[in-house]
């Protein structure tokens, strides 16, 4: 039995927070391996990257998700009791609930709402000074996803709800006030969502058939019971929050167009070219750093022992930048996705494996649709200038973003 390489530090939590997206890959490169063990949050943890590792990680016979995500992440980002922490039949049942919401026609409808909100803002941007794209996209996406999900949202509530959803996204690995804001945002968000669930069940709030609010409010588990109010609230937020988080990918798409201006004309050539550009943005730029699981029962893999209960982290960013999978991974090359047939274990920006049976995020379809529409709006619906600003990405910050939020000026309608 081979000895699994071990990180030299007796406790690597601070190094993880410092190194961020590069934590696993830097150590894999240092030790000449795609698997090593370390200690994070005082617990022995196995870290993996690469396609074989991803295929292993998404084997539901070998891994479970229950108890894998640290409590601080559940209490801010995902919510306690949500689909991400379920396994087996319970996970399949809850996952089917989400899949039922995300039909092709429903996703297209969300995309149209996003377009309508975006184009309604262009005249306002024309009359204003500098526009911070990140802030604008957050509010646009909040309005669009709430309308799509059947969630009533007064204009006076938009900033508040957007801030709460952002706080959840920003806080899982944050320390001090940012983490406290995430806890506060999670609490307020669950109370708001729970009230909506109860009103639908009581018949005092109409929710259109097929919308996320109605589907989740009426969903019954494997024993025929309605989801508890708090769990239903968590799952409703698991529709709203990830959709608002696409604002980061929209900023990354704008950054890619700015850094690679030749693609501004090319993305309009065909839907396939636009999608190739979007997929490369998702591969190249950092979104989720890692995914977590626990070993279901002890097993050996590639000469290494995985003991029962051990936490395992899959390096999503590192897998998307693995030299064995992506030639010149640090170069932005959308053409690498031309004719690409898809591989659920080498391309993992929002998790890997199968959507229907595994833990790959079904919101990926929404992300691609919204990003394609964003790229079209950025290149065809408006023109703008990009003034000097700090657009550098700090890979030690999770989640990361250009410090400026991507500022544009002199916005003009072109369509």
Keyphrases for this structure?
alpha+beta, globular, 10 strands, 16 helices, 415 residues, five-stranded mixed sheet
3D architecture notes:
β6 (299-301) and β7 form a beta hairpin. The chain is an alpha+beta fold and 415 residues long. It has helices at residues 13-19, 23-31, 51-57, 71-78, 88-101, 104-127, 133-149, 158-170, 177-202, 212-218, 229-244, 246-259, 263-266, 271-284, 316-320, 364-381, and strands at 35-40, 43-48, 63-64, 131-132, 290-295, 299-301, 304-306, 311-315, 382-385, 407-413. The mean pLDDT is 96. It has 16 helices and ten strands. The protein has a five-stranded mixed β-sheet, sandwiched between helices. Strands 4-10-9 form a three-stranded antiparallel β-sheet.
Widest sheet: strand ordering: 1-2-8-5-3
Overall mean confidence score, pLDDT: 96
Largest beta sheet, briefly? 5 strands, mixed
Q: How far apart are the first and last residues' alpha carbons, in Å?
A: 64 Å
Order of helices and strands: HHEEHEHHHEHHHHHHHHEEEEHHEE
Are there runs of 5+ residues with pLDDT below 50, and where?
A: none
Q: Which structural category fits the helices and strands?
A: alpha+beta
Put simply, the count of helices is 16
Helix content: 40-55%
Shape: globular
Count of extended strands: 10
């Amino acid at each position: 039995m081979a000895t699994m390489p071990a990180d030299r530090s007796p406790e690597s939590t601070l190094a993880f927070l410092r190194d961020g997206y590069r934590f696993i890959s830097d150590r894999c490169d240092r030790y000449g391996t795609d698997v090593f063990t370390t200690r994070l949050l005082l617990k022995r943890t196995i870290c993996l990257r690469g396609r074989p590792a991803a295929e292993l990680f998404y084997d539901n016979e070998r891994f479970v998700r229950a108890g894998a995500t640290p409590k601080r992440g559940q209490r801010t980002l995902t919510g306690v009791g949500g689909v991400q922490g379920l396994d087996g039949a319970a996970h399949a049942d809850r996952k089917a609930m989400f899949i039922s919401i995300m039909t092709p026609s429903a996703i297209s409808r969300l995309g149209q709402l996003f377009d309508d909100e975006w184009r309604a803002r262009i005249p306002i941007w024309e009359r204003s000074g500098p526009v911070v794209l990140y802030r604008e996209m957050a509010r646009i996406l909040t309005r669009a996803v709430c309308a799509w999900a059947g969630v009533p949202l007064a204009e006076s509530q938009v900033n508040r709800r957007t801030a709460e959803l952002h706080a959840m996204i920003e806080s899982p690995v944050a320390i001090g006030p940012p983490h406290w804001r995430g806890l506060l945002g999670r609490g307020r968000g669950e109370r708001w969502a729970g009230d909506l669930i109860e009103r639908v069940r009581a018949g005092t709030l109409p929710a259109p058939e097929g919308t996320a609010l109605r589907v989740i409010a009426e969903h019954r588990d494997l024993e025929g019971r309605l989801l508890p109010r708090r769990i239903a609230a968590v799952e409703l937020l698991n529709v709203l929050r990830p959709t608002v988080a696409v604002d980061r990918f929209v900023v990354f798409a704008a950054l890619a167009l700015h850094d690679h201006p030749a693609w501004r004309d090319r993305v309009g050539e065909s839907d396939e070219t636009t999608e190739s550009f979007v997929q490369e943005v998702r591969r190249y730029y950092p979104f989720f750093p890692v995914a977590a699981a626990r070993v279901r029962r002890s097993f050996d893999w590639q000469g290494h022992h995985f003991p029962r209960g051990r936490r395992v982290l899959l390096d999503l960013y590192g897998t998307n930048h693995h030299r064995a999978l992506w030639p010149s991974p640090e170069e932005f090359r959308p053409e690498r996705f031309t004719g690409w047939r898809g591989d659920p274990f080498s391309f993992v920006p929002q998790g890997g494996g199968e959507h229907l049976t595994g833990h790959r995020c079904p919101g990926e379809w929404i992300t691609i649709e919204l990003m394609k529409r964003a790229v079209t709006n950025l290149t065809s619906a408006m023109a703008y200038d990009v003034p000097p600003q700090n657009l550098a990405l700090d890979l030690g910050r999770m989640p990361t973003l250009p410090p400026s939020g991507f500022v544009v000026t002199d916005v003009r309608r072109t369509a």
